[in-house]
Design a protein that fits this description.
This protein has 241 residues and is mainly alpha-helical. It is 48% helix and 9% strand. It is built from ten helices and four strands, in the order H-E-E-H-H-H-E-H-E-H-H-H-H-H. The strands form two sheets. A two-stranded antiparallel ribbon has the order 1-2. A hairpin with a 5-residue loop joins strand 1 (56-62) and strand 2. It is globular.
Length: 241
């Protein structure tokens, strides 16, 4: 009997996940774009005034089945540069306005377009970076069996305030237990976390979350040579895209 490789077996989809979830995503994203359009237009104007152009930040991320797609977000950092012409550190470019956008998750609203295009879902593991993906184990990469989400279980359980291993474990827990009630709970808790508690947005004393590879290197869970090899692998994936 052939031995199953770790992380390759896929769970059987339930009725909600197979037949209902995508339809609800389309309805939710459509209504969201209509209802929130005045806010999004106003935010676009403010971003253009305070941060300049472009208003929309586009970044390539691995989605379902690790297919690379372009994820849209409202820009939250300036292009401030030092005397050497290089971009300043994130904490210098993420000013008060940008922090408010991230703290309330308003910078994520353009992802409603990604949901309509079928690249994302309202609820699912957050789409990470290719340079994060290459450091994951085969088991952890199972998170890409489903569409990434606007919000997810890891986001309501601490977001970037929890360590990477816990975050990825929560992603796997979610994809193995996708239900309508579970998704509704995550959406409700997301609104509480983003607009009332405003917690877990970034890691302690950091403007942006630490990449998975940097986290592993900092905690001596990967050697420098392997770290550099994986970074080259990530760049290669993006070039082949």
């Amino acid at each position: 009997m052939r031995k199953k490789r770790e992380g390759k077996q896929r769970k059987k989809q339930g009725i909600y996940e197979k037949y209902i979830k995508r339809g609800l995503d389309i309805v939710s994203a459509s209504l969201g774009l209509v209802v929130l359009s005045p806010i999004m237009i106003g935010m676009s104007v403010l971003i253009r005034i305070k941060l300049g152009k472009p208003v929309i930040f586009i970044q390539e991320r691995p989605g379902k089945d690790e297919r690379i797609f372009r994820m849209y977000k409202f820009r939250s950092m300036s292009d401030a540069r030092g005397e050497d012409g290089e971009l300043l550190p994130d904490e210098k470019r993420l000013e008060k306005f940008g922090k408010i956008l991230r703290a309330t998750s308003l910078d994520e609203l353009p992802e409603l377009v990604n949901i309509l295009k079928g690249e994302m879902s309202v609820v699912g593991p957050r789409p990470l970076l290719v340079r994060d993906m290459v450091f994951m184990t085969r088991k952890q990469r199972r998170r890409h069996e489903v569409r990434g989400g606007l919000t997810g279980l890891a986001q309501v359980m601490g977001r970037n305030a929890i360590d990477w291993e816990t975050k990825l474990e929560l992603d796997l827990k979610y994809i193995d237990n996708i239900t309508f009630l579970g998704d509704m709970k995550i959406i409700f808790r997301t609104m509480i976390t983003a607009f009332i508690k405003r917690e877990g947005i970034t890691e302690a004393e950091m403007a942006t979350a630490l990449d998975y590879g940097d986290y592993l290197l900092r905690n001596q869970k990967v050697v420098k040579q392997e770290y550099e090899r994986k970074q080259k692998e990530a760049k290669g994936i993006l070039k082949r895209k």
